[in-house]
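If you are new to this repository, start here. Below is one unmodified record pulled from the training split, so you can see the exact layout before writing a loader.
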Amino acid sequence: MQVEAVSHDALLQASRRVDWRFLLPRPELGRVACMGETDPELVRSLRLFSSELTASQSPAADEDEPSYDLVVLRNASLGELEAARSRLRSGGWLYVEVDNPLRRKRARAARSARGYARSLRRLGFVDVDAHVHWPDFASCRAIVPLDAAAAIRHGLAQGQRSRARLVTRLAPALAATRQLALFVPCASALGRRPPDTKDAG
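And here is the target side for that same chain:
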């Protein structure tokens, strides 16, 4: 973990911003690339909790071997998913944050976390999953699998916003019809690049 002079409260907030690291088999982030659309708080937190961080529109193209343990994207295009895959080491993880697709202005990124999960599987990723982050990424109090309607309903019930109450009531029906990902405010997709054959043998 990189050392930076921060207050206890700031460090706590920074750790909350990357609480999703506990979805990984090992919460140590290792060597990380944050590509494309970025969020200043996310980049700052990644810098604190990774051994090394590259934050840019795309990782350096002149690297001979894919070498990142983790690549982080936000509202990515398919091209960015493909570029991220090429930068991951064998067995590395790709994490994609997804803002609500119905509220996004950029058409190229208008897909849900479930849509990203499908794209990751098509690109050959394994151990793919999608999660809801409640109430949002920055002040996350709960991370639950997108298909766990009961857990999502409980998490949303903690919110006070009228929209949250509406989604809370509709969560079981939305989950049953696989539409819940379109209505939750913040979600993510996660997948692992499978080990190369030469590494697996």
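Two things worth knowing about this chain: Residues 17 and 137 are 6 Å apart (CA to CA). The domain at 8-129+185-200 is CATH 3.40.50.150 (Rossmann fold).
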